[in-house]
Amino acid sequence: MANKTLPKRSLILFIAIVALSSSISNLIPPNLSTISMYFGFGGDTFPLGVLTSIFTIISGFAMLIFGYLADKVVRKWIIVVGAFLFATFSTLTIIIMSGLGGYFTFFIFTVLMGVGYGALIPSSFSLIGDIVSENDRSKGFSFFSIASLVGIVLGNGLAAFTSDWRVSFWIIGMVGLVMSFFLISLREPSRVGLDHSSINNEIIYPYRIKRSDFPIIFKKKANVYLIINFVDTIPTGIIIFLLYEYMLSYHGISNDVTVFLLLFILLATLIGTIVFGYLGDKSFQKGNKKARVKLALYGNVLPIPFIFIALIIPFQPPNLFPGIIIWVILMMVGIFLNGAVNGNWYATVVDLNLPEHRGTVLATSNFFDIIGRSIGPVIGAIIADTLGFVYGMMISIFFWVLIPFFWIGVLKNIIPEMEQTAEIFNQRLQKISET
User: Per-domain residue ranges for the chain?
Assistant: First the structure.
């Protein structure tokens, strides 16, 4: 019989390392002006926008490479190498000096941290797909999404409350190095998944991705729409990058208060991710195979008016009320509804693809998402430097309106392509059991 504690222990470790690595990209925004002055840019945010974009672009290319490898080799070792890489150079950030030379050193460290992060994500996703039951995928991958949210909280919290911005990188790096050693002890689960390996944990799934599989992957229209939907990351890339300076310049709110407000918003995201993950799984179990996609579609449409109104509400000290309360409520409602996307998106990727294709599909999807995240800070920085931080934040709404059109394409094609994948997988299991 399978060891029931193995999936739980593995899931906790994967979630923890994803949260830790996700915090890296969130250590800069709370200290935009401070870091800009440290490197001699006089408060100009554009060089840091470029640096943030480089991190996301490099991690995107790394995901393509390691996502493909995750479908061919032992995934645990990819995660271990990625964890050591991002943790080592995060720790070394503490030695970076001020001035332009320090900026270029930080630039190199950022590239290497991006490679480590890019190695971690597709392999972790693929492994989680093997230790979570089919009927619980939305809930299971909700924790994968929540890990990124925890990373946002952790990164923003550390950056806002450490006196030296480099210390936050050092702390994350040290904890990452410790966790890397725990990852070495993990055992690789069977690629047949929890539903089938629970009977015989030694069952071997011999199929691995081949170059001839790429036409099969990209022939699925739902896959293509999921992969090219990078527009959905542009708004969040803009908002997260500019949030602190927007709150300071438009509302007169300091960074420590912004972190406190952000906690409420991220709590709403966490709750929304869990609630809609549960609803997606319940509907899926009842036979509604489109439920996860529909929830993700609604999660992209419904938040738009709430976020739009929140961004233009004026309030300043000492007259913060009721404006700041309305702002928090609108943001929480909008982000709560957007939580419907998270777990259901990941579950849909797994539903659509064979085990040996999942790492590659997620890596390709994340690569396009990375493009959106890298474009976001640059667009936001240009608009903010030119027109002000309010307009920089408002441009995010323009991109948000485009997101639902991609999910309509997924909705149209999900059922036949999901059934095709299930048929091939079941035929393979039958063949494996006979041999």
Answer: 5-434
